[in-house]
Design goal:
heterodimer, A: 281 residues, alpha+beta, Elongation Factor Tu (Ef-tu), domain 3, Rossmann fold, Dihydroorotate dehydrogenase B (pyrk subunit), domain 3, 3 domains, 8-stranded antiparallel sheet, 16 strands, 22% helix, globular, B: 314 residues, alpha/beta, TIM Barrel, 8-stranded parallel sheet, 29% helix
Chain lengths: 281, 314
């Protein structure tokens, strides 16, 4: 019996689009000094995830900590062929410290897939993605989605230093052209990134942009999308209560075309919003 | 075969387990068969449209959360045109929940939403986040009774009064709403609390104060349910930190006729269904034919009267 066959959704199963997926940990290894990659065997409901959606993870109790609420985690890898999901995360607090304690064979209870992910307009030809830090993880599945729809993908990855840069291999495997920038090299300032994007746009016109992980990158994405009159989307992060649109804890102000602001739920109305709708990622 | 049927303040329920107001929304239907619940209690609405308080809105503690949401509300028309039709199709009775700035507004809103698809209205007189008067209606027996009387004057639907635990003597409030005509009391809403970040020297909640909920509050609310059940003849609905079927049984033994599960729905979406199954097994194992027999079946020491439970010498 394979691990995949053992993984099954928590009741109820069948006609429900989301579930408390009882996954099994395949690996949970450090990728560099900051990030770890958690790979799990997931049941079918979990594998129905698409780019930009997330799972709400029940963090295991450790000897010293017992996180009460689940933790939202964007999907880094959706591998339907092998029945696996991947989560790329940085250990920053109680929840991620608990996740880091998971060992191969352990169960991970992952509610999902949740939220509204990226939607690429039909006929999109060239997607430009700009991401920094943990935002890189969120955009990786979008590269696959875009390639599957026949679009070309250019990804600008930003990091504090080259050793903190993640996802290059994942993005290249997905068929994206990858450009790295970092603070040490001094080529990650917004104006530098804008110049790069203008050059790329002049070469092959960009008709969709996506961003995650930095307010400055969100700002420049919004400006360029407005200038080029193309759609752009951002994946927003928030500390959540329920992850299902029930508790209204994870709200952010969202602006409509008339400039009217309404508090919307990151978990249920998002986490992906139009770049013109939100002020912070 | 255990009979799980209960009748609570005019509402007939297939079992005594329902969600607490604000703990489920449309998203829950993507994971859970809502048709299996005893009732479906909706999120509180206000007469006006509200956005809620400034984030951050939640702080996590061990087995507890401190929430301050501020009742975001799309108003009564959205409730009647969207929320009620969405939940009515699952089958269990739908309970609306309302809040307002004045007793008269409670009455007007109760009348406005009176509809055959709604089985009862819960009066949220206890939300600790209300800023209207700096003090919740439920903290004052006179104000609490005024709200219930205003609602009863405007609707024939059963009224459930959801009490606040932030009072010295909750039995006094329970008696006041019973006298005003309430058909049941829900004990209780969240315990007022505060969170502070030592590093930043700032409050952890945008609204500074919030309501403590989750399994950690269970002993406090269990005591209050017991006090309310001994004070009034109308049914008491227990609500406070229930996570499992065993918690449900404890609340019923203390005097509750039904229960609401709140915060645990955020962590385990299967909590309500699993609790129904556990209570069924418990009754079978204990040879209890009707779940209603559990209400108030607590075996107390014979030499301690209920007055003695109003205080404790530590």
């Amino acid at each position: 019996m394979t691990m995949t066959a053992m993984a099954k959704p928590e009741a109820p199963s069948g006609c429900f689009p989301r579930a408390e997926n009882r996954c099994h940990v395949v690996s949970n290894a450090p990728m560099n000094s900051e990030y770890r990659l958690l790979v799990v065997d997931a049941p079918e409901t979990g594998l129905s995830a698409y780019a930009g959606q997330f799972f709400h993870l029940l963090c295991p109790a450790t000897a010293t900590e017992q996180p009460f609420l689940r933790r939202p985690m964007s999907i880094y890898r959706i591998d339907r062929e092998n029945g696996q999901l991947g989560f790329l995360y940085k250990v920053t607090g109680k929840g991620t410290r608990a996740l880091a304690s998971l060992a191969p064979g352990d169960e991970l209870n992952a509610t999902g897939p949740l939220g509204v992910g990226f939607s690429l307009p039909e006929g999109t030809k060239h997607v430009a993605m700009v991401a920094r830090g943990v935002g890189l993880a969120t955009l990786a599945p979008l590269a696959r989605m875009a390639r599957a729809q026949g679009a070309m993908v250019t990804a600008i990855l930003s990091a504090r230093a080259p050793e903190f840069l993640m996802s290059r291999d994942e993005l290249e495997a997905a068929g994206a052209r990858v450009i790295e920038v970092n603070d040490v090299a001094g080529n990650s300032a917004p104006q530098e990134v804008i110049n790069r994007l203008r050059d790329i746009h002049a070469e092959t016109p960009i008709d969709f942009m996506a961003t995650c992980g930095s307010n400055r990158l969100l700002g420049l994405t919004r400006d360029l999308c407005s200038e080029w009159r193309i759609p752009g989307q951002v994946a927003v992060e928030a500390f959540m209560g329920c992850g299902l649109g029930m508790c209204f804890a994870c709200v952010v102000p969202v602006r409509d075309a008339q400039g009217h602001e309404e508090m919307k739920r990151v978990c249920y109305d998002g986490p992906v919003f139009g770049v013109e709708e939100v002020t912070a990622w | 075969m255990v009979d799980l049927f209960v009748t609570i303040g005019g509402v007939h329920m297939a079992n005594p387990i329902m969600p607490a107001s604000g703990s489920i929304a449309e998203g829950m239907a993507d994971l859970v068969d809502l048709g299996k619940l005893g009732a479906i209690v909706l999120k509180t609405i206000t007469p006006d449209i509200r956005q809620g308080v400034k984030p951050p809105r939640v702080v996590e503690y061990t087995d507890a959360t401190l929430f301050s949401i501020g009742i975001p509300s799309k108003g009564p028309d959205y409730l009647l045109n969207h929320t009620v039709p969405f939940f009515a199709r699952f089958g269990p009775p739908v309970i609306a929940s309302i809040s307002a700035d004045t007793a008269e507004d409670f009455g007007t809103l109760a009348g406005y939403i009176t509809d055959p698809r709604i089985a009862a209205i819960e009066a949220n007189i206890s939300c600790p986040n209300l800023r209207a008067h700096g003090r919740a209606f439920g903290m004052d027996p006179v104000a609490a009774a005024e709200v219930i009387r205003a609602m009863k004057a405007n609707t024939d639907l059963p009224i459930w009064a959801k009490l606040t635990p932030n009072v010295g003597d909750i039995a006094e409030i329970a008696r006041a709403v019973e006298d005003a005509g309430a058909d049941a009391v829900v004990t209780a809403n969240a315990i007022l609390g505060m969170g502070i970040n030592a590093e930043t020297m700032t409050p952890r909640l945008g609204n500074v104060v919030g309501g403590l909920t989750g399994p950690a509050v269970k002993p406090v609310i269990l005591r209050m349910v017991n006090q309310c059940a001994e004070a009034v003849k109308i049914p008491v609905i227990g609500c406070g930190g229930i996570a499992t079927g065993e918690d449900v049984v404890e609340y019923m033994l203390a005097g509750a006729s039904a229960v609401q599960i709140g915060t645990m729905n955020f962590v385990h979406t299967a909590a309500m269904e699993q609790s129904i199954a556990w209570v069924t097994d418990y009754c079978t194992r204990k040879n209890i034919a009707r779940v209603a027999e559990l209400t108030g079946a607590l075996k107390l020491p014979v030499d301690q009267n209920s007055e003695q439970r109003g205080a404790v010498a530590l």
